[in-house]
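Hey, resending since the last one bounced:
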Amino acid sequence: MRSFDLIGKVAVVTGSSRGIGRAIAGAIAEAGGTVVVSSRKQTACDAAAAEINAALGAERAIAIAASISDKAALQAMIDETRARLGPIDILVCNAATNPYYGPLLEIGDAEFRKVLENNVLASHWLVQMVAPDMIERRGGAIIVVSSIGGLLGSDLIGAYNISKAADFQLVRNLAVELGRHRIRVNAIAPGTIRTDFARALYEDPKTEAELNRATPLGRIGEPGDIAGAAVFLASEAGAYMTGQAVVIDGGFTIGRTSA
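The structure tokens again:
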């Protein structure tokens, strides 16, 4: 459908050398966009961009490494994107950190700060960097990949969940501020997805079996299950949607199945 086309659009996707970000970057390129693959390591970014280009038989992806913990590196990545591809139409803030598993009462200050800075503040930085061009051109799409953790309590990943709840409010506030400029800001809230990032939540077969039983669709998600929503939110198909969170969790948050 033409309403899902991203032809001529320039997108930046953080944390896109693997997992959910890689799937989103590939889907944006497949929809016709040109995408910047970005994560901490240049070699990983190069490999992911090469895979996307080989699959499509066209140069739809370039690789620019940047750590979300380094504001100057993020600015350099945005500046290089503008110089090579032109103004940015789509920003996907996907990269995140979770260095601590355990009770919130025992987390150290440095770990808590790292979670909040990488998962919330870095997205705020990136929006500040891309918003001026979007405002000038009167249009753009910003997507923050949050988590259903932002809707739930946890005795294992409490700090991460707090950061993901903050993502929802970041999106709402930005949607209010930027809506007058026809810039849409939305979140995606995945459930447990089979990625290296979430491995601790499913690597034990018993834990995965419990997750599957608690999920109406009977399985944990795959990175590709998230990519289509990003294309929807980035394209004209989502032109009247802003300030919202799309939950993609196989039904986990609606309650346990009886089976």
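The mean pLDDT is 94.

Sorry for the duplicate.
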